[in-house]
Amino acid sequence: MAETKREVERKYESDDSGLPDLTGVAGVADVLDKGVTELDATYYDTADLRLAAASITLRRRTGGSDAGWHLKLPVAPGVRDEIQAPLSDTVPDEIAALVRSRVRTGQIVAVVRLRSRRDVRELLDHGGRPLAETSVDAVRAERLHGGEGTAEWTEIEVELADGGDPAFLDKVDKRLRKAGVRPSASPSKLARALAETAPPKQRATAAGEPVPAGKPVTAGDHVLAYLRAQRDAIVELDPAVRRDAEDSVHSMRVATRRLRSTFKSFGKVLDRAVTDPVGDELKWLAGELGRDRDREVLTERLTTTLDGVPADLVRGPVSERITTWSRAEHDGARGRLLGVLDSRRYLDLLDTLDALIADPPLRKAAGRKPRKVLAKAVKKDVRKVAGLVQRARELEPGTDRDVAIHNARKKTKRTRYAAEAGEPALGKPAKNLVKTMKGLQNLLGDHQDSVMARQTLRELSAVAHAAGQDTFTYGLLHEREEQRALRVEAELPAFWDGIKDATAGL
């Protein structure tokens, strides 16, 4: 079973390779010598170093107190999540799954072997509690794939103790710099090893670092920059979704919707004959991601509404039934989603997105100046929103109006994403439109959530009735949701009238 640890550390190098005296650092009462450990680690990646390009490291290490497989995923500069699994001859399945969005159908091979002699010191506070662990690592690197080079160096690491205050590292940093120690030029041992052991002609890109994209100039540049960011978000969020990290499913779903919406909004920039089939696959993925997200939103909504009901009006185990339903839905949706993320269909979609962005189906307008092209597309989307809102306002309350409001909401999100894509070129007017469309989206979303909540309440009520339980409270909650929807419908005309000029300045 894999375990996750949040690693907060800084790396340094010095000319004399020694560790300065740290007893003078504020808060440090003692420096405990923990001895020397011999570490032997083999790092794995694809032949084209996709993991290294994403600052991800995968290794199998022996020696020390945490021998095993280690996968390190970047969180922020100097912060990584380390997922650990027991030693085995091959990459554990649960570790392999976390890099699948990068590796896909490729092969993982041993790329570098690092053998380190680690001299460890622990910094303790006045209560004997650990503040951080420091080490001086004498490293020897040996290239195993893509070359035969070797390299040697010594570096200093300072890793914050579990639950420690990151500000403490600033204090250590100040002391180290004062002693002539400087921050390492490489973000990790692997990056340095790949750079220093690569054949001379390959050293500029040995660490697998992506070539920075140029500043957007044309309309096509701006659209592709937005598409690239959403594609990257999907790939980067994949491990978090697999680990069931908070808000990860929602964020990944939003990225898929942004991609699909961009294809539709900017059909004058990208050929829809090519992008529409990709959009269909993104719709499928968003639907799979939405199963558990919808459950999550409904659970929070129903629970909050129930909390507002006086105790004497709660008849039967309503809260327990909502919880049981939510857990069952989550378990079923999660198992299905993990299957989707391991499917060939999903991996093919990622490959298709890569190919489309690398060789985009650009139309004539893509080469033009961005302001006019992007503004025209955004305004067209706003007009479509206006038509859908007007239709919803003309309908009587009921199913037809519910559907019309839902359609207006979907178009509102598409308009918001189009404005986001155009914001770097269109400036403040586009930024204001994003804010305006988000407000409308939230209003219409509240209505759609009410529709879904009422449907779920009817289903829960039927189950409760079949079990011989009182269904009064379900009816009460249903009525409150219905009134909530009616309030949204009443607010819509004034709200919309206040944003009719949303495209002003574009």
Topology, please?
Elements: E1 3-13, E2 30-45, H1 50-53, E3 57-62, E4 68-76, E5 79-85, H2 93-98, H3 100-103, E6 109-124, E7 130-143, E8 150-160, H4 167-178, E9 182-183, H5 189-197, H6 219-242, H7 248-265, H8 272-307, H9 318-341, H10 344-358, H11 370-394, H12 399-426, H13 428-466, H14 472-497
Helix pairs in contact: 6-7, 6-10, 6-11, 6-12, 7-8, 7-12, 8-9, 8-10, 8-13, 11-12, 12-13, 13-14
InterPro entries: CHAD_dom, CHAD_dom_sf, CYTH-like_dom_sf, CYTH_domain
Domain CYTH: 5-200
Region (Disordered): 196-215
What does the model show?
- By secondary structure, this protein is α+β, with helices and mostly antiparallel strands.
- It has helices spanning 50-53, 93-98, 100-103, 167-178, 189-197, 219-242, 248-265, 272-307, 318-341, 344-358, 370-394, 399-426, 428-466, 472-497, and strands spanning 3-13, 30-45, 57-62, 68-76, 79-85, 109-124, 130-143, 150-160, 182-183.
- It has an 8-stranded antiparallel barrel.
- β6 and β7 form a beta hairpin.
- The radius of gyration is 28 Å and the shape is globular.
Using the CA coordinates, give the radius of gyration: 28 Å
Please indicate the percent range of residues in DSSP E strands (runs of 2 or more): 15-25%
Overall SS class? alpha+beta
- Helical run tally: 14
Task: Enumerate the strands of the largest sheet in spatial order, edge to edge or round the barrel.
Answer: 1-5-4-3-2-6-7-8
How would you sum up the global shape? Answer: globular
Helix content: 40-55%
Largest sheet composition: 8 strands, antiparallel, barrel
Organism: Streptomyces venetus
InterPro entries: CHAD_dom, CHAD_dom_sf, CYTH-like_dom_sf, CYTH_domain
Protein name: CYTH and CHAD domain-containing protein
Domain CHAD: 216-504
